[in-house]
Amino acid sequence: MTALDRRLHAFRPDLADLALKGRVEAERFVAGEAMQVITHTAPLHREPRKDAPLDTEALCGERVSVFELAEGWAWCLLASDGYVGYLPAKRLYAPSPQASHRVNAVRSFAYPGPSMKLPQAMTLSLGSRVHLLDRQGDFAIVAGVAGLARSYVWAQHLKALDRHEPDPVSVAEQLLHAPYLWGGKSSLGLDCSGLVQLALDAVGIAAPRDSDMQERSVGAPLPLGDGLPPLRRGDLVFWKGHVGLMQDAHQLLHANGHHMLV
Predict the structure, then answer these.
(1) Is the pTM of this model over 0.85?
(2) What pairs with residue 92 in β-bridges?
(3) What angle do CA 8, 183, 66 make, to 5 degrees?
(4) Distance from C-alpha of 7 to C-alpha of 26, rounded to nearest angstrom
(5) What pLDDT is recorded for position 2?
(6) Which of 1, 58, 103, 132 is found 20 to 30 A from 196 (Cα to Cα)?
């Protein structure tokens, strides 16, 4: 059998994704059940334990394929980037209609009614997905948040999925001074590849989750001669286990564990 990346392929000795039948050995193969993240984020752990390493996060509105529900954990594959791991099952719900909009503010709130004076039902982070049902004044009525049939989000904080930002660096600059969090990809904390993935998503480029995957699949390598070629805004720079975006020819923007900040 060809070796597969366990980060991106759901297989264990006892259970595997039906799509991998014939490629891996397992006692049982199942088709994933579609579910959706309904909380601000859902942590994806390497093992079904709260103290297991955090590999990434799924944002509100993200679809997942669940292969097993057991003891409060969902073993699943994230629809956005194909990452595999264990999510807390209580953060998932039956999917609402496909998302139509994303949150394009660093952070926003969902309310139970069309008033900013109401207690917020949930925080929404940059890149979260919602399905637009209607408009009421300055608010968008959306589905897929906090398990509510409908909630209300400030309409100017949303953008249609087919309307992309022009510059990934400007998106990343909104997250300056956000704290560093290994495996994080929300405005409350994120890592280097999470920052790059969020920034590229906003401009319509689907990027894988980890820096080694991004280095292999995003963009085209610059030619290396006697020295480093001239760098431009938006160029990605990789070194071992890390990635950042150039703001200009000389300045790098990245989430880093040295300062524990973007």
Answers:
(1) yes
(2) 37
(3) 45
(4) 17
(5) 54
(6) 132
169-186: burial string, b at 16+ Cβ within 10 Å, e else: bebbebbeebebbebbbb
Placement of tokens 């292969």 in the chain:
67
- Is residue 105 within 8 Å of residue 187, measured between CB atoms? no
CA angle 152, 158, 163 (to 5 degrees): 150
Other CB atoms within a 10 A radius of the CB of residue 62 amount to 24
The number of beta carbons lying within 10 Å of the beta carbon of residue 61 is: 26
CA distance 95 to 69: 16
74 three-state secondary structure: strand
CA distance linking residue 208 with residue 169, whole number of Å: 18
Local structure of residue 1 (DSSP, 8 states): -
Which residues are CB-neighbours of 50 under 8 A, at least 6 positions away? none
- Nearest alpha-carbon partner for 211 in 255, 167, 262: 255
**CA 102 to CA 158: how far, in whole Å?**
6
Kindly report, residue by residue over 61-93, the tens digit of the pLDDT: 999 999 999 999 999 999 999 999 999 999 999
Q: Which helix (H) or strand (E) holds 59?
A: strand 54-59
Burial category of 215 from C-beta neighbours within 10 Å (exposed 0-12, middle 13-18, buried 19 and up): middle
d(CA 242, CA 163): 29
